[in-house]
Amino acid sequence: MGFPARLPHLMGVTVAIIGHGAIAQYVRAKLPALNIAEIAEIVRPGKEAPVATPPRISELNDLPSRPDLVIDCGGHQALALHGPVALALGIDVMTVSLGALADRKIEQSLRDAATKGGARLRLVNGAIGGLDALRSAQVGEISQVSYTGRKPPKGWRGSAAEAAFDLDAITAPVTHFSGTARDAALAYPKNANVAAAVALAGIGFDDTQVRLIADPGVTENIHEIAVNGAFGAFHFQIAGKGLPDNPRSSALAAMSIVAALAEMQKQIGF
Ligand SMILES: NC(=O)C1=CN([C@@H]2O[C@H](COP(=O)(O)OP(=O)(O)OC[C@H]3O[C@@H](n4cnc5c(N)ncnc54)[C@H](OP(=O)(O)O)[C@@H]3O)[C@@H](O)[C@H]2O)C=CC1
Ligand SMILES: O=C([O-])CC(=O)C(=O)O
């Protein structure tokens, strides 16, 4: 595919964003302040609008020019579909859909495409913090990493929890998942990306233990990490407010994309 030539650092940074949901809209609203232009919105087939500003397209082949970055705010399926195409074209991809990497086929196809295109998949921290300490701790021996995700019942709508429990009828905390980060990420594509972030920063998808809880006693999305190892021990907890348009997703997840964009802009070459 050939793109019209551009002079990126004279013209400002350009991105294409996958999705039009709660996270994508938050990120979009912050682009002007960062002097970043969105050259296309990537939507599902059937929702294209080629003359909109920016144009809405469903295939990267229809990009009007080459963006500096594709930002995935669309979820696992969107990353699996568009991520390898962008990377193979040499375009970096920033994603919040970390749980998609629990699927070995998706992970491999992203790796292969990144190698082919010489591009990079950039994982944002998402709705959690403390990952810097976990990455450092991982250099020594780690004996245990556990992650607990606790949300009000409405935060689990549209997830596997809804199929197993009547979320409206819960009067006490219900643990609806207990197992590995890999199984959590695969079973809860919209709710266990934090489990994946913890796994990737620490001891991996198969050794990180996860509990997911619907709790009528909380109003925020509470994420806890507990780690023990050669370094000592740490416990991290965050109570994140949900985005107004989607209580499942914490505002911090969207903020982490904006923070990563600001960080990239500080670096030479973006
Ligand atoms: N790392 C983290 O901490 C977190 C990660 N996430 C991840 O971010 C994702 C987005 O969250 P959020 O914005 O709140 O979700 P929303 O449901 O509000 O929005 C999702 C958007 O993605 C679009 N979309 C889905 N699939 C595709 C596709 N194949 N091609 C193009 N667009 C697509 C949807 O379009 P349509 O309306 O047409 O379906 C919708 O606009 C979540 O699914 C989750 O995987 C979320 C929270 C935290
Ligand atoms: O936004 C959150 O609180 C966490 C979330 O949905 C996820 O881990 O996928």
UniProtKB/TrEMBL annotation:
Residue ranges annotated for the Aspartate/homoserine dehydrogenase NAD-binding domain, each copy included: 46-122
Pfam families: Asp_DH_C, NAD_binding_3
Top enzyme category: oxidoreductase
Domain named Aspartate dehydrogenase: residues: 171-258
Calcium in keyword set: no
Highest taxon in the source lineage: Bacteria
GO biological process: NAD+ biosynthetic process
Catalytic residues as annotated in Swiss-Prot or TrEMBL: 223
Cell inner membrane found in the keyword field: no
Reaction catalysed by this enzyme: L-aspartate + NADP(+) + H2O = oxaloacetate + NH4(+) + NADPH + H(+); L-aspartate + NAD(+) + H2O = oxaloacetate + NH4(+) + NADH + H(+)
Keywords from the UniProt entry: NAD, NADP, Oxidoreductase, Pyridine nucleotide biosynthesis
MF GO annotations: aspartate dehydrogenase [NAD(P)+] activity; NAD binding; NADP binding; oxidoreductase activity, acting on the CH-NH2 group of donors, NAD or NADP as acceptor
Positions with a binding annotation for NAD(+): 127, 193
EC number annotated for this UniProt entry: 1.4.1.21
Pathway per the UniProt entry: Cofactor biosynthesis; NAD(+) biosynthesis; iminoaspartate from L-aspartate (dehydrogenase route): step 1/1
Ranges in coiled-coil conformation: none
More about this protein: The iminoaspartate product is unstable in aqueous solution and can decompose to oxaloacetate and ammonia.
Chain's role: Specifically catalyzes the NAD or NADP-dependent dehydrogenation of L-aspartate to iminoaspartate.
Family: Belongs to the L-aspartate dehydrogenase family.
PANTHER family found in the cross-reference section: ASPARTATE DEHYDROGENASE DOMAIN-CONTAINING PROTEIN, L-ASPARTATE DEHYDROGENASE-RELATED
Protein's name in the database: L-aspartate dehydrogenase
Organism: Yoonia algicola
